[in-house]
Amino acid sequence: MAFTDKDKNRMAELETKAKEKYIENTDWDAVIEMLDEGEQKEYWKLKKKMDKEYNL
């Protein structure tokens, strides 16, 4: 039984779906804390700016 292009495409679809579900169900703050301290500060500064811009 060969691993076909159809199989490869379906596997990619399933992996993408799984990654999206993982991100949706992950504590985003904990992920941001994995960045270096300077990157965390930069992220939160940009996040605050974006939230203000889009009234979030």
Judged by helices, strands and strand pairing, the structural class is: mainly alpha
Q: How many DSSP H or I helices?
A: 3
Shape: elongated
Question: Could you report the average pLDDT, rounded to the nearest whole number?
Answer: 96
Q: Compute the CA-based radius of gyration.
A: 18 Å
CA distance, first residue to last residue = 51 Å
What is this structure, in a nutshell?
This protein is mainly alpha-helical. It has helices at residues 5-24, 28-32, 37-53.
Description:
With 56 residues, the chain is mainly alpha-helical. It contains three helices and no strands. The longest helix is centred in the N-terminal third of the chain and has 20 residues, at 5-24. The N and C termini lie far apart (51 Å).
Keywords:
mainly alpha, 3 helices, about 55 residues
Blueprint (SSEs and pairs):
Elements: H1 5-24, H2 28-32, H3 37-53
